[in-house]
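Input chain follows. Return structure tokens only.
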Amino acid sequence: MNFSGICPLLQVFDMPTALGFYVGILEFKVFEQTPDWAWLKRGETELMLNTAYESHERPPAPDPARHAAHADTILFFGCPDPDSLYTQLTAKGLQLDPPTTAPYGMRQLSVSDPDGYALCFQWPVSN
């Protein structure tokens, strides 16, 4: 078997809001897009977004239970300098806790996207 990467698909409530975060804040580039779907890339990292509802079925506000359940999904990104990323993201207006070092030696910055998905930017601490 041969695999060459993974491209997770996240269900989002509002595509413009999700793109504002992933493109505007995290600086992904839109590779392909339709009104309800987007394929994003940043370097070797790929991510797809899809609206959770067809436009004619979309409720006026996100379902709180669905939003809360998204915290069970964590995307881990390789990030050589989580502390620098923290500085960059807080300068863009995100309210974040500073990076921490996990007991297993990974320096980590935790972020939540607008739909409640957890993102962890991490790198091994060098000794």
